[in-house]
Every structure is written in C-alpha cells, then in structure tokens.
Amino acid sequence: MKIAIIGSGLSGLACADHLVAARHEVCLFDKARGPGGRMSTRRMDTAAGQVSFDHGAQYFTARDPAFQTVVKQWQESGAAALWTAAGPEAWVGMPTMNTPIKALAARHDVAWSVRIDGLVKQANGWQLQSEGHIIEALFDTVILAIPAEQAASLLEPWESEFQALAEDTVSAPCWTLMLAFADPIKTGKATFRDDRVIGWAARNSDKPGRTGPDSWVIQASPDWSIEHLEDRQEQVVTALSGGFADLLGFSLHDPLVASAHRWRYARSGKTSHSALYNSDMKIGVCGDWLIGPRVECAWLSGTALAKMVLA
Ligand code: FAD
Q1: Which of 53, 217, 251, 293 has the fewest CB atoms within 10 Å, i.e. the most exposed one?
Q2: 29 and 70 assigned to the same domain
Q3: Alpha helices in 22-98 (DSSP H)
Q4: Is residue 3 within 8 Å of 137, Cβ to Cβ?
Q5: How many Cα atoms sit within 13 Å of 10 on the Cβ side?
Q6: What is the 38 CA–ligand 1 centroid distance (Å)?
Q7: How far apart are CA 234 and CA 149, in angstroms?
Q8: Number of separate domains in the chain
Q9: pTM (predicted TM-score)
C-alpha cells in the first residue's frame, strides 16, 4: 500500500516505522519546518552563546514494555537519558528533546512545511490538498497523526464518527515562557511545581547534555493559560516572569532571553480508544489524544494504528 501520514510527531513516526517494516510505502507531511511536534526544541543565539529550550514536553516516562524497549534503544544510541531531577523514571531527549524525533524522521520520507488542509476521496484512493492545491500523488490509505482539534476539521466530510470523537476531545492550552541568564539564578532546585499562575518551572540547562547559558522553561497553569489565551506575548512574558519570581521568592535579574510561546493544543484529552481505523474508507487516526496527554501515549497510539492497518 501507499500510505500518507499527516503529522510527523511521535505518533505519526511510530506508525510509519511499523508500516515501513511491513514493506508499505509511507509518505509523511508536516506543516512545521523540522522535526519535533510537541517534543520540539527552540534554539536562540545570545551574547553568552547559543541556548536551547525544550519548550514543549519536559520529560517523559516509559511504562509500557514495548515503549521501554524503544527508549532503551534511544538511550543506547545517545538520543535519550534519564533526568533524575524530575523523578527516577523521567527521560529526556539528548542533547535536546527533539533528538529522538529527528532520528526517527531521518528514516522516513517527510515533506516539511506542508500544511494539509483537505482530503479528497477518489474512486481509487486518497489525494491531499495543501493551501488550496491538490497534491498529485494518490494514496491507498490516509492517516491523521495530529491533535484532535486539527484532525476534526480534516475528518469532517469523510468520517463523521471519528470527527465527533475528535471534537469532543478537547485539549488544554499552555503558555510557556523561556528565560536565559548570563549569571545563573541562585537556587539549588532544578524543578518547581505549583498550581496557581505557574504550573511547572524547570532549569532546562540542568538536563543531561545541555550546554550554554542558564536556561529556564516556565509553564503557566492550565487555568491561567485558558484565561490569558489571547494575551499578547509581551504581557505573558511580564506576567509569567513575575509569577516565577514569586515562586523563587526573589526578583529576577535581567535575562538574555525572555520569550513566550503559546501552545494552543498542548495537553490533550483522552478517549476509550487507542487509535481509530475505518478499513472500508481506508482512513485512520492516531495521536496522544486517543490515549492521554503524554509522549508515551503518542507512541502507543501510532503503534496501535499500524497494527490495525496491517490486520
Ligand atoms: P504532535 O507532537 O503534536 O505531532 C503532530 C504533528 O502534526 C506536528 O509536528 C504538527 O506540526 C503536525 N501537523 C498538525 N496539523 C497539521 C496539518 N494540518 N498538516 C500537516 N502537519 C500538521 N508529555 C509528557 O509525556 N510529559 C510532559 O512533561 C509533557 N509536557 C508537555 C508540555 C507542553 C507545553 C506540551 C505542548 C506537551 C507536553 N506533553 C508532555 C505532551 C507530548 O508532547 C505529546 O503527548 C506528544 O508529543 C504528542 O505527539 P503526537 O505525535 O500525538 O502529536
């Protein structure tokens, strides 16, 4: 089969791995410029050298035996390591969170910077539409490996049950502040958890393999993110910097970098399915949102969908 996968985050790539291993031809499409999805890393140049921020997923766990095997392989190849400051089972990509995604994507045919905005069912397969133009290739099967809200609009004309499920599975947003300092912040703690303005704050430069200036990723709580969803970036930088200073108990000195990123669909909901596949229509759906808002769930969902397609 020739299979199109829309979304080249962990779920789409896990699905692709299994389908390619079964000798199917897989083409992935992703609207982003490079690999990561919600396991992305942002790099910035500063007067004190380059700094990187894992501004999406902070760390991940591996409890399923099959995913544990995959993470062990990442560890052996140097693409992942334990970050015990976040807990005894907390894994991170090495030297950046997106390293495992980069390695997976390198094994596949991925078209970057291609946003798919429509699916077209032909008598003998599927075609994809991007920015109003139909892409010439014809696919036997199409797979959506994107957040629920984005999947819902592509599913709408073709699979009303899947579309309804995607619409009912609502994600929570997350405003994220990235700060870097020439002089490290004076605290012995690498992570903070709270539930008021700041949900989580972590010294990114404390993670294994990171180099460069003292860097911090500070996530607003879900309630604060919802309430301030449409605020301007500058307002969010000021508010979250203040919230972080309150958490530390002292004021912050001037940062090298202070930048905010809004994840509109950060933390997914969950359903009672691991993946969705309509074998008559040859359309499938995977992603963290089927199982839960975690990296491991994305891998499990992509793997579950591949098994359904192969069955
Ligand atoms: P994604 O990684 O979102 O991949 C979807 C891909 O589809 C993206 O690359 C996107 O560019 C692409 N795409 C979307 N629409 C289109 C389109 N129309 N056309 C083409 N391409 C498209 N998980 C944990 O386990 N631990 C954590 O600590 C944690 N913290 C998090 C903090 C934040 C701020 C965020 C945002 C997420 C966090 N997560 C965490 C969740 C974790 O990152 C996700 O569960 C996981 O990365 C989801 O993978 P996915 O493949 O399902 O989706």
Answers
A1: 251
A2: no
A3: 65-76
A4: no
A5: 25
A6: 3
A7: 27
A8: 2
A9: 0.97
